[in-house]
Amino acid sequence: MKKKLLEEIINKKKKKIEFSIITNLDNGHSFIFEKNKPVEKNFKKYEDKIFLLFNSKKNGIIDGTNIFVETYILPIKVIIVGAVHIAQYLVDFAKNLNFEILIIDPRGYFASEKRFPGLKIINEWPNEAFKQIKTDQNTALIALTHDPKIDDPAIQHALKNKFFYIGALGSKNTHTKRCERLKQSGYSDNEINKIFGPIGIKLGGRSAPEIALSIIAQLVSKVYNT
Amino acid sequence: MKNSFDEKILEEASDWLATKRNVILATVIQTWGSSPRPVGSRMIINDKGDFSGSVTGGCVEAAVVRECLSLFKENKNFKKIEFNVSNESAWEVGLACGGEIEIFLEQIS
After folding, report:
1. Which value does ipTM take for this structure?
2. Cβ of B1 and A10 within 8 Å?
């Protein structure tokens, strides 16, 4: 691989572009494939097969050839509402798992750069914050404030936009009340049942890092079981 | 659903190059049977023999490093290598799990 190509790959990852690296294993020559961009002429005859692997987000050698395709897809977006203590541990776990993390908290004293260095923090109420973020079915929401004023609008946005994971911190009681409020706002039982509340798998731990671990475990299991 | 569990190996390769070391990229390109890591798993090796990342669960990494060091010596740009359970190139090498893997080594130039 040429050094220039390596830098180009790193750049595309930074810019959040999806692409495939196509390598001819017979001569070591590689090029970067992108949707809607012309395929290099040496690889033209494999165009359909490359496209197929790219679309199915798979890596592998094209059958009967010596062409290797490796596809880079965008990381899952995880939105944390509430820049609380648990969030600090969540951020640590989520980084190793390569999730893209954003934090929303209108309370400036929580969501400070000092508490979350280098992270994208949006100091707005959820409804305003979501105007700045592109969300879809590959987005997850972790609501941690257990303050209905902040959590509820975020949960409603996540339900409307069909996030693949929605979890909300709070006791069984808090969650029952939350569900009642959502019902009154017109959400169906089916939708409300998609919310993980109380959040996290049953680990038994009560400390902030233990709760963060149980949340992240639930989130990862949802990635593979949807 | 899929996430890109990207281990940032290519970024690390770029950092290593910046320190004026020669770097080889090792990528799992094919697997048969039960192999520890999926196609696309990566490892980088420099001319001092340092390595980062993995292509198996620690089964063949030492042998991969040896292959890379000889590739540096011969000044070759790429090579395909294979490992399976019966691989006897060295006593510690081989996949205990009974799988087979093919790895592509390429020098970043």
Report:
1. 0.87
2. no
